[in-house]
């Protein structure tokens, strides 16, 4: 009994000592450490937005340098803290293991971690097997209708149409349709300028009122005469070989119903957010969609650049234009919805890494989170739709790949709130352990995107992957829970003119 009491006393003393050490480190390090972290996180506040619009290049360059240096300080600080706080981490895990709830949570966490690791290795395997389909000959290329919906894009729509007209695609097989969706700025003027310069190569239309991107595309689908429809956002620039590379899979694969292009960021010269998103897009497209393509099940063909087989579009066009969610018309996620409906028909949806497009992305935090909210809501809606057919006999041949991708996305949605609750609990009870372990995890997990981008492009830009992960973890973590809770809400959120 005395030994038991002695061990209990020692255990209590050890806990007390660990918490005292943790508290001392917390009170000593946090004021210095949070200052470095603040340099990274402030890009989400209005004060930093002034820098984004500042025309002084030296200030922008200096700010970029400060953020990158701060990122390294944060990463080094996290590694140091994890090392120093090992006794506290051990005690935290021991406390969890000594309770039924804690043990259950620990087993569940390890299981999820093992699943995610296996799924990641599977994606690497698929990526290593992926190869873009080379362009077919001019004679084999199908007739193609390009649809460019535009709303409040100004002069950029003129640049978009010029880049399309300059494509290395047989002119007699190319139809270009530009549709102004009731813009409030000078978009229609620049469409007219493009028409004057390009002549019969482009046909322009003006919606009598703003009805949304889906309705502008719908008009284009009904007017188009090509065997393949290509949709391109009006703030995007394509390369000369993009179109022929994009549509070639329709020739080589009779069951191909849609193709996703390779999206990169156009406005990434100065502002930080586009620099971060450029690295993120490379990971999202050249790694994730390449892996999905090997399963014939790319889940989303991006609005910036996508191609669809004509028959596949018209097979689902009435359902697509009249789509509703919880009784309300769907005015977002038109690209994900079209992809979903084409997958449902049993078609393959592929990705072409050699079909490049450069597109504008938000430069300010407000625009970024609105874009992510729209994407998040669409993801929830289309996952529900996919659940209705993915476990049926919707496709000839193997359906395991589509089902695995669906399960992975559904798991991410299902685990959102449990993970959020645990995160809040961790922050309240052990703030320093949370901060250090989270940043250390970012250092480990984000190293793959850094190395991937560095190998594909260059090392200096790849470092932004660390900064983006910190921003997303601490400044955008609320997006997915909010998008799930408000999935029924409509609205594009980012289409209006900026306030003066």
Automatic annotation (TrEMBL):
<feature type="transmembrane region" description="Helical">
    <location>
        <begin position="404"/>
        <end position="427"/>
    </location>
</feature>
<keyword id="KW-0328">Glycosyltransferase</keyword>
<keyword id="KW-1133">Transmembrane helix</keyword>
<dbReference type="GO" id="GO:0005886">
    <property type="term" value="C:plasma membrane"/>
</dbReference>
<feature type="transmembrane region" description="Helical">
    <location>
        <begin position="465"/>
        <end position="485"/>
    </location>
</feature>
<feature type="transmembrane region" description="Helical">
    <location>
        <begin position="65"/>
        <end position="85"/>
    </location>
</feature>
<dbReference type="GO" id="GO:0085029">
    <property type="term" value="P:extracellular matrix assembly"/>
</dbReference>
<dbReference type="GO" id="GO:0030213">
    <property type="term" value="P:hyaluronan biosynthetic process"/>
</dbReference>
<keyword id="KW-1003">Cell membrane</keyword>
<dbReference type="Pfam" id="PF13641">
    <property type="entry name" value="Glyco_tranf_2_3"/>
</dbReference>
<protein>
    <submittedName>
        <fullName>Chitin synthase</fullName>
    </submittedName>
</protein>
<keyword id="KW-0812">Transmembrane</keyword>
<feature type="transmembrane region" description="Helical">
    <location>
        <begin position="433"/>
        <end position="453"/>
    </location>
</feature>
<keyword id="KW-0472">Membrane</keyword>
<keyword id="KW-0808">Transferase</keyword>
<dbReference type="GO" id="GO:0050501">
    <property type="term" value="F:hyaluronan synthase activity"/>
</dbReference>
<feature type="transmembrane region" description="Helical">
    <location>
        <begin position="105"/>
        <end position="128"/>
    </location>
</feature>
<dbReference type="InterPro" id="IPR029044">
    <property type="entry name" value="Nucleotide-diphossugar_trans"/>
</dbReference>
């Amino acid at each position: 009994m005395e030994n038991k009491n002695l061990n209990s006393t020692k255990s209590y003393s050890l806990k007390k000592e660990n918490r005292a050490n943790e508290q001392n480190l917390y009170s000593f390090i946090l004021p210095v450490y949070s200052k470095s972290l603040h340099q990274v996180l402030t890009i989400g506040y209005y004060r930093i937005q002034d820098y984004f619009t500042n025309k002084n290049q030296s200030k922008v360059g200096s700010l970029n340098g400060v953020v990158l240096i701060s990122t390294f300080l944060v990463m080094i600080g996290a590694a140091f803290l994890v090392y120093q706080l090992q006794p506290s981490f051990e005690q935290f895990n021991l406390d969890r293991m000594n309770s039924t709830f804690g043990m259950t949570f620990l087993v569940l966490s390890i299981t999820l971690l093992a699943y995610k690791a296996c799924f990641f290795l599977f994606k690497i395997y698929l990526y290593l097997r992926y190869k873009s389909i080379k362009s077919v000959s001019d004679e084999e290329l199908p007739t193609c209708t390009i649809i460019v919906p535009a709303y409040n894009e100004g002069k950029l729509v003129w640049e978009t149409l010029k880049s399309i007209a300059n494509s290395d695609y047989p002119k007699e097989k190319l139809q270009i349709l530009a549709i102004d969706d009731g813009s409030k700025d000078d978009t229609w003027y620049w469409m007219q300028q493009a028409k004057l310069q390009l002549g019969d190569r482009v046909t322009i239309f003006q919606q009598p009122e703003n009805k949304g991107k889906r309705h502008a595309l719908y008009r284009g689908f009904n007017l188009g005469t090509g065997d393949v429809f290509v949709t391109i956002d009006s703030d995007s620039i394509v390369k000369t070989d993009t179109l022929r590379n994009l549509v070639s899979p329709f020739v080589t694969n009779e069951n191909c119903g849609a193709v996703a292009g390779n999206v990169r960021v156009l406005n990434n010269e100065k502002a930080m957010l586009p620099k971060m998103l450029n690295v993120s897009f490379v990971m999202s497209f050249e790694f994730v969609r390449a892996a999905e393509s090997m399963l014939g099940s790319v889940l989303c063909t991006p609005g910036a650049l996508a191609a669809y087989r004509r028959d596949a579009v018209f097979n689902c066009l009435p359902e697509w234009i009249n789509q509703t969610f919880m009784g309300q018309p769907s005015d977002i996620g038109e690209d994900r919805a079209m992809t979903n409906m084409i997958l449902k028909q049993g078609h393959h949806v592929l990705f072409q890494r050699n079909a490049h497009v450069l597109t504008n992305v938000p430069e300010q935090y407000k625009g970024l989170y609105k874009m992510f909210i729209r994407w998040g809501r669409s993801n929830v809606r289309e996952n529900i739709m996919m659940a209705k057919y993915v476990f049926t006999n919707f496709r000839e041949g193997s359906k395991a790949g589509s089902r695995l991708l669906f399960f992975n996305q559904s798991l991410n949605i299902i685990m959102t709130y449990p993970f959020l609750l645990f995160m809040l609990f961790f922050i309240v009870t052990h703030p320093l352990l949370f901060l250090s372990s989270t940043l250390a995890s970012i250092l480990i997990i984000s190293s793959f995107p850094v190395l991937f981008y560095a190998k594909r492009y260059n090392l200096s830009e790849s470092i932004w992957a660390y900064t983006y992960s910190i921003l997303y973890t601490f400044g955008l973590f609320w997006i997915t829970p909010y998008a799930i809770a408000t999935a029924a809400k409509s609205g594009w959120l980012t289409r209006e003119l900026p306030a003066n």
